[in-house]
Amino acid sequence: MRWHAHQRGNLVTFRLLLQFMLQRVPDPYPPPLRNRRRRADCMGMPASTQPYYTVDEVLAFPEDGNKYELIYGELVVSLTPRFWHQQVVMRLTHLLHAYCQRETIGQVFNVRADLSWGRRDVITQPDVSVLSLEDSGIDRWADVRHVPLIAEVLSPSTARHDRFGKRLVYRDQRVDTYWIIDADDHTVEVWTPDAQFPRMEREQITWWPVGVSQPLVIVLAALFGKH
User: Fold this and answer.
1) Angstrom distance (rounded) from CA 153 to CA 182
2) Is the residue at 5 inside a domain?
3) Does 40 reside within a domain?
4) How do residues 140-188 score in pLDDT, each as one tens digit?
5) pTM above 0.85, yes or no
6) Phi/psi at 77 (nearest 5 deg)?
7) CA distances from 15 to 9, 24, 131, 226, 227 (A)
8) Triad 111, 113, 65: Cα angle to 5°
9) Which structural domain, as residue segments, surrounds residue 111?
10) Is the residue at 175 inside a domain?
11) 3-state secondary structure 107-151
12) What CATH number is attached to the domain comprising 86?
């Protein structure tokens, strides 16, 4: 079919008019608006909403067989320890008690000791602790200030807190020596307040308090032996 010039012109005009009209018709399915959050909305938000506890609140908990500790306001709950855990605790307690009695340097505890150093957001219950003679006449755990030695025997439910949170508490309270005992691996991490890294012991551990003539040397093979 042949088109005359005026017909071709009319067709072009019609196409331009149709294109113009389509551009003015709103899209029934517009693209979704992008959620443009402000920079301030994306920064500084807490990772969790875990409640902040105080010593008084934790001490008011009913007795249910669990161990409740407080690490700078964070509640830590531990289950009843394994039998092997308690065996190592008792062996270490016996060795430390005999040494402290002989050298007259302090008292050894492996019972529930709510150590807080007078803070409102800290309670720790070490597996084994040695209190100095300076605190021998106290009436409350909250009044304890000088703890030359603390030992924690690792359990699956406590390992992270023993190595991190509680270690920071003991560092801040200037506990002279902190032993982290791995009874399964037969190793001991030895920490002091100013240490950046622990000293790993696999053969023996030595505790030599200030003012004492002879150190306590514990052979780990004897501590972890199956007897």
Assistant:
1) 6
2) no
3) no
4) 999 999 999 999 999 988 999 999 999 999 999 999 999 999 999 999 9
5) no
6) -115, 130
7) 10, 15, 96, 96, 99
8) 65
9) 55-223
10) yes
11) EEECCCCCECCCCCCEEECCCEEEEEHHHCCCCCHHHCCCCCEEE
12) 3.90.1570.10
